[in-house]
UniProtKB/TrEMBL annotation:
UniProt-listed Gene3D superfamilies: 3.30.530.20
Classification via SUPFAM superfamilies: Bet v1-like (SSF55961)
Pfam family, one: Polyketide_cyc
The protein, known as: AlnQ aromatase
Ranges where the Coenzyme Q-binding protein COQ10 START domain occurs: 24-116
Gene from which this protein is expressed: alnQ
Organism, as annotated: Streptomyces sp. CM020
Ranges in a coiled coil: none
Length: 331
């Protein structure tokens, strides 16, 4: 992949950079993947969670949580969608210091005779003059942009349509306990090895909520999971904890057979207790289908099998939470 970085002057706080690669897929297909921000956690390794806040005509507002450098940061952006021109322009609404301005674009071009297709991600940013800030931002942008443009190219060039590889599903459990107690059971993942039979081990680190994370406490965890056949596998995850409301997570190292797995726990109080919803979205790795799920397994069958395995674990977690909390209330 070719990368070009352009600087106004060596000591200027304003910089610009373009990350460019050839694209052996239609510009429209690549454009659609970027327009659908809800799937970004599946497409892009740095992205933990994404939301479309509103859309009016060709103007869209989004919020992202992503790994930037050594931490997780959140921001909102205004995007101008131009499907006819295969271009999306964006600008952060309230950049966090030391950034004072951040804008850019996605641009997609179809191949033409003698010229390959083109995928371009551009950025322009200004910092507050803090020594070394422009260089730190440039390094973080270069790292994330290189990953993102490579991932987008890979998804756009796949022979399968995204909908063939992606599945979303959910399970629910009504628990006769206050929402705060139900939330705490799922929040205290450090206690899961004692409480959940499918969790063989877990290491957890937490960072308190702050404005830079839009009020989310950030947890990182390494979890060893026991399968029904006695085997174990280890996954790494980042969780965004919004106290009493939801816990959003993404497996940054998903198990074999999956390209990505993200989800959330949602809590809703009612007269009979707390309704907990476990939502999952998975992206299947087509190259690993037969080695993981067995010879002759189709992509559709593998998705259903993944749903059964992942759903069984989350349903088991919810049943254990219900038993733990309702039994405790009765004692």
């Amino acid at each position: 992949m070719d990368t070009e970085t352009h600087e106004r002057t060596a000591d200027s706080p304003t910089r610009s950079a373009e990350h460019v690669t050839e694209l052996a897929a239609s510009a429209r297909r690549a454009y659609a993947l970027i327009e659908d921000v809800g799937r970004w956690p599946l497409l892009f390794a740095p992205c933990i969670w994404s939301q479309e806040l509103e859309r009016t005509g060709g103007i869209q507002r989004i919020r992202l949580w992503a790994v930037v450098g050594n931490g997780v940061r959140s921001w909102t952006s205004r995007r101008v969608l131009d499907p006819a021109g295969n271009r999306i322009d964006f600008a952060q609404e309230t950049p966090a210091a030391p950034i004072t301005e951040m804008s850019g674009h996605w641009r997609f071009q179809d191949a033409s005779p003698g010229s390959p297709g083109r995928l371009e991600l551009g950025h322009r940013w200004t910092t507050d003059g803090e020594p070394g800030a422009a260089d730190r931002i440039a390094a973080a942008l270069d790292s994330n942009s290189t990953v993102e443009i490579g991932a987008l190219r890979a998804w756009a060039e796949r022979p399968e349509e995204p909908d063939e590889l992606i599945l979303s599903f959910s399970d629910e459990e009504l628990i006769a306990a206050p929402a705060a107690e139900v939330y705490d059971f799922l929040y205290r993942a450090d206690l899961w090895p004692e409480r959940l039979p499918h969790v063989a081990g877990l290491d957890l680190e937490s960072n308190p909520a702050e404005p830079a994370t839009a009020g989310a406490e950030v947890q990182t965890m390494d979890m060893e999971t026991s399968a029904a056949d006695g085997s174990t596998h280890t996954t790494q995850s980042v969780r965004l904890c919004f106290e009493g409301e939801r816990i959003v997570y993404k497996q940054t190292t998903p198990p074999r057979g999956l390209l990505a797995h993200s989800g959330e726990w949602l809590f809703s109080s009612g007269p009979e207790g707390t309704l907990v919803t476990a939502r999952h979205t998975v992206a299947l790795d087509p190259a690993a289908v037969e080695s993981v799920f067995g010879p002759g397994t189709t992509i559709a069958q593998a998705l259903l099998r993944a749903r059964d395995i992942i759903g069984a674990n989350s349903r088991g977690t919810l049943r254990t939470a219900r038993s733990h909390l309702e039994q405790g209330a009765a004692e």
